[in-house]
TrEMBL record:
Matching PANTHER family: DNA UTILIZATION PROTEIN YHGH
UniProt xrefs under InterPro entries: ComF/GntX_DNA_util-trans, DZR_2, PRTase-like, PRTase_dom
Upper lineage: Bacteria, Pseudomonadati, Pseudomonadota, Alphaproteobacteria, Sphingomonadales
Family (UniProt): Belongs to the ComF/GntX family.
CDD domains in UniProt: PRTases_typeI
Name listed for the protein in its UniProt record: ComF family protein
Domain Double zinc ribbon: 14-46
Amino acid sequence: MVAVARFARHFGPVVDVLYPPRCPSCGVTIASQAGLCTDCWSSLEVPTPTENEVGAVPIYAATYYNETSRKLVLAYKHGGRIALARLLAQLVAARLPESQEGRAPPVLVPVPLHRWRLWQRGFNQAALLTHELARLGKGEPAVEALARHKRTPNLGGLGREARERVLTGTIRLNPARSARLAGRDVVLVDDVLTSGATSRACIAAMSEAGAASISVACFARVDQDHRLIHP
């Protein structure tokens, strides 16, 4: 890590000259390679704590899914801009509560991808966020705790009930990793929370391991007043 920091300090200015920093959302020139322009920062809509509760499961969302966050998600998830994982994770980390004194840090579990989807995309966007959150001191990663055993079609555009039907029986607990969740606080990590169907399927699977508590952390959350459809 020290070597990386030294490299960034010495060669960062050279990189900035060769590749001028641009806002990953709108493309305008910015001061550094990490971050957003002022306009895009100000356009992110952060949910209030009371808006972050869905049923009995706390939802920690960095922002609502609006035009700005949509562009970031598309660039990250479908545009191959995996370096954005650090920025998105920093925004999520700012919403997560601090670990209680005397309690073990939470276990961070990403929403799984089916192996064919992982092969097509080349990475699991939720797993990358999980690793970045771990680097930020927000918990211990358990990237193989869940597995998606059935390939499902793209859920974009489907309603809640349709998503529930498609996801039935597709996500299961990995028996070899279940002991890591027993008695621990668990945070399910995803990039976008849409209807909550995927999260509920993951929570149902993790509940079998005897987790002490389960919450959800995501970068963007689709809300009824923010009607963009997650692709």
